[in-house]
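call fold target=nicotinate-nucleotide adenylyltransferase
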Amino acid sequence: MSYLLFGGAFNPPTKAHIELAEYACEKTGAKKVIFMPSKMSYIEHDQAKNFAFLDTERLAMLESICATHPKLMVSDYELKEESQPRTYQTLCYLKEQGYACRLLFGSDKLPELKTGWKHVEEIAKEFGIVCMARYNDDCEKMIVDDSYLSNLSQYIEIVHTPKEYHHISSTEVRKQFLIAKDAIQILRDTLPKELHALNNYLFSEDNHEK
């Protein structure tokens, strides 16, 4: 029984990451899903994100999640490397550690295999790929219509995921986090210090208008 390697920024990890990982684990019969967070420097520079939680913060978030989800685990291998490892390198490392993995990703990554990835054929043939269909993507058609992907089709398993998780985005979570952070700072700057405790009151769910 193999594992699934789920790499990404997890900036931050969302309910979709957790429940889709568990769903893919169940559907493929994998032993566990291994979360592999990318380095902060890679997220900010190579992916050009305008905000990234620290490596230690994202690792702590994932460790907290995995502690209560027995089918999930997290590795800090990529975070500890001097530069961001390639996915193939990470898969080889995990195999050496006794974790034979298939690569797990969302269908938004499928078209990128022939343009932005290295060692794709080695990944597919030596390890295998599990693609989670999201956003109403017709992954089977995407593969059939692309000669490069068609040649790898026997190594790619498609998992059709529940639609309720298709709209959840780390990008939107980061956006709302920064808005909330700015709002709290405005309150601290404008309210007298004696009223700073009102922050908790104002942002309490019990005090939201219905």
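return ok
Residues 22 and 32 are 8 Å apart (CA to CA). The beta strands are 3-8, 33-37, 72-74, 101-106, 129-133, 156-160.
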